[in-house]
Amino acid sequence: ETADTGVTLRACDTATDYALFHAVSEHAKLILSVPCCQHEMNKAMSTESMPLIGRYGIVKERMAALMTDAIRANLLTACGYKTQVLEFVDLSHTPKNLLIRATACLQPKSVRERALSEAEELMRTFGYEQKLYALLRESGRLESTAELLKK
């Protein structure tokens, strides 16, 4: 059977990625994810090409969190979901106010390819491989842009 809905609420660090991977693997029709902390990219990202981002810890932390969620959203799109990133609680109440909403649909190949390419480019720029990306690739649920273009 397939899952109808996958939900994460403030799953810390890579726990969000494992939950998203499980939802994709189970062919969830709807995914609602409210990520919490995203320490993985903050620790692993190289800021040599953009030293200003790495100079101030809080700036690097927030950039890493936003980039992590952008990559996650694009990976869900690459897996065939219509994906949105929304603010669901006013920023004055909590800085962790993003909701990733993904609905299963038939995404055109060109949309999936572009989403994957953009995610891969961002990871290359910062010398980092995001956990959801690794899980999807290892399971065969995601092909690199180069592999998609060969077909």
Task: Explain the layout of strands and helices.
Layout (H helix, E strand, L loop, with lengths): L4 E7 L3 H11 L4 E6 L3 H6 L6 H5 L1 H22 L2 E7 L10 E7 L4 H17 L5 H9 L5 H6 L1
Would you write up a description of this structure?
This protein has helices spanning 15-25, 39-44, 51-55, 57-78, 109-125, 131-139, 145-150; strands spanning 5-11, 30-35, 81-87, 98-104. It is an alpha+beta fold and 151 residues long. The protein has a four-stranded mixed beta sheet, with helices on one face. It is globular and about 45 Å long. The two termini are 30 Å apart.
How are helices and strands ordered from N to C? Answer: EHEHHHEEHHH
Largest sheet: 4 strands, mixed
Principal-axis shape:
globular
Instruction: Walk across the major sheet and give the strand order.
Output: 1-2-4-3
Q: Which secondary-structure class do the elements indicate?
A: alpha+beta
Q: State the helicity in percent bands.
A: 40-55%
Annotation field: number of helices:
7
Distance between the termini: 30 Å
Instruction: Provide the β-strand percentage band.
Output: 15-25%
Mean pLDDT score? 86
Count every beta strand, where a strand is a DSSP E run of 2 or more residues: 4
Give the C-alpha Rg.
15 Å
Poorly predicted sequence stretches spanning 5 or more consecutive residues: none
Highlighted features:
4-stranded mixed sheet; 151 residues; alpha+beta
Summarize the structure.
The chain has 151 residues and is α+β, with helices and mostly antiparallel strands. It contains seven helices and four strands.
